[in-house]
Amino acid sequence: MELYSTPSKQLDKFIYEKLQPDRVFLEQLQHAVHMICEFLRESCFVVASAPPTRVLKVVKGGSAGKGTALKENSDADLVVFLSCFKDYEDQRKNREEIIREIQQRLVECKKQRHFELEFDVIRPNARVLSFQLSSRTLSESISFDVLPAYDALDHLVSGYKVDPMVYIQLFQKCLPGGEFSTCFTELQRDFIVSRPTKVKSLIRLVKHWYKSYVRQHKQMLRNGESLPPKYALELLTVYAWEEGSGETNFSMAEAFRTVLELLQHYQQLCVYWTVNYNFSNETLRSYLSRQLIKSRPVILDPADPTNIVGNGSRWDLVAKEAEKCCRQQCCMSSSGTPVRPWNVPPEQTHWKRKDVRRLNYLRPAEDLCCPLSAPQPAPVSPISTFPRPQWSEDLCTVL
To answer: Alpha carbon of 34 to those of 40, 57, 59, 116, 137: distances in Å?
Structure first.
C-alpha cells in the first residue's frame, strides 16, 4: 500500500511494516560498516609519509548512524577524522588528495577483503568518496560516502559543551556556510539519536514521503538548482515535535500533518537550537543574530551555525507536494475531514530581543561572514582556555 492511500489511523502500522528495517538488514549494514571502518583504521594509511597520517576516529553518520534508516535503503556515511588536518584550511586544501588516496588503497585491498567496489567519479574539489560495496555476505550492495575531516571537536565527550572558539574560528574564515559541517558529524548524529523512538519513526515517514513523492519534481529543476536536503526535513520534523507535542507517545497523523503545514509556510521558517552554541558569547551572538535575519527559510544546523540547511533550494516544489499530500487519505480523519496539525509557529522569535534588533540597521547580512565591530577583530588563536577533557594522542575510535 502506498502512503497516499494509507488511512491516517494506520500510519504507525505503515511505518512498522514498510519503512522500519528488519534485523537481517541492520546486521548486514552493520557488517558492511565494520568492514570499511576496519580498513580505514588499519590498512588505509599504512604507507609511510612525512609526517605519518593517523586515523583519529571514524564516525558513522547519516541515517545509519542516527537510527533513521529506511528498509532496503542501504547507505552509510563514514566521516574519517585525520591527524594530517591541523585546521579547517588544511581540510579544504588537501581533502581531494586524501580522497584519491583512500580510493587507491581500497582498490588495492579489495581482493584481500573479498569485496567488490564500484566508485563514483571524483570531481575537482571533491568532498566525498562515494562507492557501492558488494560481497558474498551481503544480500544487496551497500552505498557508502566516505568524508575526510578535521577533528575540530578534539575528541569531545558526549554532553560536554562545545568551546565557542571552535565556531568563531570557523566563521572568521569567511568561507561558504556549511563548508565544514562534516567536522560536526558527531553533534548532528547525537541531536537525532537522543530523540524518542517514535520521533525517529516520524522522521522515517517524512523521509519516505520525500523520497517517493518530492524527488519526482527533480525534472523541474534548472541548471544549478536543487531540492532541499533530507537533513533539512529531519530538523524541521524535530522542531514540529518539540513545539507541538514533546511527548513520547503522540498522534503520528497529527505530527506528519504538522510537518507538511510548516513546509507550506517555508517563506516564514526561522528555526534554530541552542544545544551546542548560544547567545552568551558576544562574538557568537552577533554572528547568530545576523544569520537569523537572513531571507527565509532559515533552518540553522544545531551542530554548525554557519550552515543554513537548504539555503537557496527549491522549497516551492516541496511546498507544492506538501499541499497535495494534505488532501490524501493519509491526512484525512475517519470522518473524511482533514487531520488537524499541531499549533506550531513557523518562526521562532525568542532571539528578537532589543540587543538583537539593533543590528538591523547594519549593512546587509548576506554580505557578512565575520563578526561586525570596529576595528575588525584579529583571527582567533587556535589555543583556547575553554576547559575540555584530556585524551591520549594515539586514540582511534569508531563511534
So the answer is: 10, 13, 11, 16, 13
Question: Is the Cβ–Cβ distance between 257 and 243 less than 8 Å?
Answer: no
Distance CA 94, CA 92 (A): 6
Nearest to 161 by CA among 397, 398, 384, 392: 384
Chain centroid to CA 278: 19
- DSSP letter (8 states) at residue 230: H
Domain over 3-377 is classified CATH 1.20.140.10 = no
Question: What is the rounded CA–CA span in Å between residue 179 and residue 176?
Answer: 6
Given a contact cutoff of 8 angstroms between Cβ atoms, the answer to whether 143 and 130 are in contact is yes
pLDDT digits (tens, 9 = 90+) for 52-64: 788 999 999 988 8
First to last CA, the chain: 36
State pLDDT tens for residues 174-190: 778 899 999 999 999 99
| 109 burial type by CB count under 10 A (0-12 exposed, 13-18 middle, 19+ buried) | middle
Instruction: Answer for the pair 382, 170: CB distance below 8 angstroms, yes or no.
Output: no
Q: Cell for 41?
A: 583504521
State the residue for C-alpha cell 523521509: 207
337 class by beta-carbon count within 10 Å (0-12 exposed, 13-18 middle, 19+ buried): exposed
- All three cell numbers of 7, joined, read 488511512
By CB neighbour count within 10 A (0-12 exposed, 13-18 middle, 19+ buried), where does 114 fall?
exposed
Q: Which of 81-90, 222-231, 279-288, 367-376 has the lowest mean pLDDT?
A: 367-376
Sorted by where each begins, the domain ranges of the chain are 3-377
